[in-house]
Amino acid sequence: MNSYRPPLTFPEVSVIRAITQSNPWLIPTFLLLSLVLGAALFLLARRHHLPRAHAVLFGLALAAEATATLYPMHPGADASGVCTLNRDLFTPLTGQQGGMNIVMFIPVAFFAATTFRRYALPLAGSILLSGATELLQAVTPHVGRSCASEDLVANTLGAIAGAGLAALLGSRRGPKAAAKAAPVLTKADLARGAIVLALGGTVLALIGSQAVTPVFAEVSELTQASTAQHRAAEKAVHDIFGDTRTISSVQYMEAPDADAGELIVTLDEGFLQILWPSQDHISGATDTTAFPGVPHHTVDSDEDAVRQATAFVRTRFPWALKDSETMVYPTVAGAPARTVSWRQRIDGVLMPMRMDVVVEPTGRISSFTARDQKPPANLPAHKLTEEQARRAAAKYVEMDTVTSTEILVEKNPQGQWETRWAIGYTPPKPTDDKTQDSPTRGTVLINATTGEFIANLT
Predict the structure, then answer these.
(1) Please, where are the H alpha helices in 49-119?
(2) Which top CATH class is 290-375?
(3) Is residue 61 a contact partner of residue 68, using CB atoms and an 8 Å limit?
(4) Could you tell me the pTM of the whole model?
(5) CATH class for the domain made up of 386-457
């Protein structure tokens, strides 16, 4: 696993290369659309005495937009019917995906403006094109794309830049060329553009209100990943998935501690989350494809689940199998999926390492969590017995029954190791129907030396 070194490339270039390699029909689709749209716009330009070269380039820009946004990356995906509306409109634009969305619409608006010799109307059309694309991504099955407000904002900025560039170049033409071209931003052009944008936007809004469910999100903490973070993400994806996954985006989410955070790696199927900069905690999930090296066997027993999970862990996280005990339990009560876990104990104290693998009945690995955290050189002393820890927990939380007890070692917020009692419990049954959504179980963390309350996890 340590022998792989990602190539030194720009993240955007590596993403595009990976997408084209994993989708062999992507480029042929673009070429076919380019031929059709380029020819159609060429004939239109010849008939209406418009610049033919610009019209053909406008067709190529439209073909690129359609291919990049509507090509079926995930043929098995259903229509999401959801559109994410981010309260933070501009932070997502600093990421890789935001930059690519801006760049994509610059040639669309630019060549539309230079072809039709208007600026406001092509700008309005470009914005409506972006809105229609987002709507189609939400309601069209087999595309496997997401509708998001930041994409519309990014596309709009790109359209403004493209139309603005066309206007700037138009204003610098010579006298003869200027006489043949329409004046920049005439009142008629502005009026037409405003009317088209208002009417088109209203139509899209009405359709969207019936076909799409809006979901509000807050993503202000997400920032663009650095080159080093992209390399770490590429290495992790290669080590875990081999060549079966394509990275769609890599974003960095800062934690309250300025020196720590998390990489959010979005894949064509699934995702990874990597603790940064330590990279000692990684989790992931996938929807369909099996992992390389994991056999295609159905799971009918706990032994089958251990076999599948071990095949996955052995070549990816071998440290988890050393001096560990194996546990198997239902992932969700009553559900067929099983979770296989590996844990280490020293003198009865649970160590911080963690390895959990969810195995589906088909034998597929659907998710995992790995924490390769080394134990302390010397175990911290603890004074509280199990019974004392139970009584201490009862002082802070109302408990109906105690379901489990575990003593473990973890780092406190100051980075110092300490032993803790984890007391699992069920709360008293609520007597008021209004509290029916109350948690049905929880875990209280108690300092195993001082007896102080640390947290109540529900």
Answers:
(1) 52-70, 96-116
(2) alpha beta
(3) no
(4) 0.54
(5) alpha beta
